[in-house]
Design goal:
By secondary structure, the chain is α+β, with helices and mostly antiparallel strands. It is 30% helix and 20% strand. The strands form two sheets. A five-stranded antiparallel beta sheet has the order 3-2-1-4-5. A three-stranded mixed beta sheet has the order 6-7-8, sandwiched between helices. The chain is globular.
């Protein structure tokens, strides 16, 4: 974060030189940061819940950055429901559902907002494939007061199938489904300021598998086209992709 236009320009030049890509400059909004979880498809899409993300120490200004997320247990307080007026919640609900549908999101997503000094919301981003790590993913945390992790993950899959959410616990084997949970292997090197373990998705994948009995977890290293080729029934393996299968019942600790 910078204080003026000159500093923003200098920082933008540095980022452009460092990463070789366009730089997005955004105005800082001092109001609450709210994230809204959504699940479902078409007219059946609905809000899972919403959550305020606040500083544990009342830091000003507060930015929910990568560094803060790494230390969220100490530096962050999550408020469900958010500490905002009911009228603002209703507005966020409407805006989030509208964005979800207009952007063509499917199954589940998370829409993030920031309020300005007057309390008016601005959407900061849409995450069309939010994390489902059972320990630290924002979507899981915001749903915790109203539904279990099992219900959240199985509900997403039932919505994707167009099935009745009121059905008994989903059994992949019993229902004749084949579920392959792919996760990419963490990189061997990362940019300065990042850590390799941040990109280790195996704990999240194994967490999802525990509530989908019969599912298979595979660790894949390769380009997206290779991963897709590996997942097709007619091409279970790829010569340029290495996959290591894990049992669905395996547990893993992470952070």
């Amino acid at each position: 974060m910078v204080a003026d236009g000159a500093a923003a320009l200098e920082r933008s030049h540095w980022l452009r030189a460092r990463y070789g890509c366009p730089v997005l400059v955004e105005q800082y909004l001092p109001g609450a940061e709210i994230t809204v979880g959504i699940t479902g498809n078409g007219p059946g899409a609905d809000v899972l819940g919403m959550m305020e993300i606040a500083s544990a120490a009342n830091e000003t200004p507060f930015v929910y950055s990568v560094d803060v997320k790494r230390d969220w247990r100490r530096r962050v307080r999550y408020h469900v429901p958010p500490r905002i007026p009911p009228t603002t919640r209703a507005t966020l609900r409407r805006l989030a559902l509208t964005a979800y549908r207009l952007l063509g999101c499917r199954d589940f997503a998370r829409i993030d907002f920031r309020l300005d000094a007057a309390g008016a919301p601005t959407s900061s981003k849409c995450n069309p494939l939010p994390g489902l790590d059972p320990d630290n993913s924002d979507l899981v945390i915001l749903c915790a007061p109203t539904r279990t992790y099992d219900a959240l993950v199985q509900g997403v899959l039932l919505d994707a199938r167009g099935a009745d959410r009121r059905a008994d616990r989903l059994s992949v084997a019993r229902d004749g489904m084949k579920v392959l949970i792919l996760h990419t292997a963490p990189p061997q090197t990362v940019d300065p300021g990042r850590r390799v373990w941040e990109f280790d998705l195996e704990p999240a994948a194994c967490g999802i598998a525990t509530v989908l009995p019969g599912a298979t977890v595979a660790r894949v290293r390769g380009e997206p086209r290779e991963i897709l080729s590996c997942s097709r029934p007619t091409h279970p393996t790829s010569s340029s992709t290495s996959a290591r299968r894990r049992s669905a019942g395996r547990s893993s600790s992470h952070r």
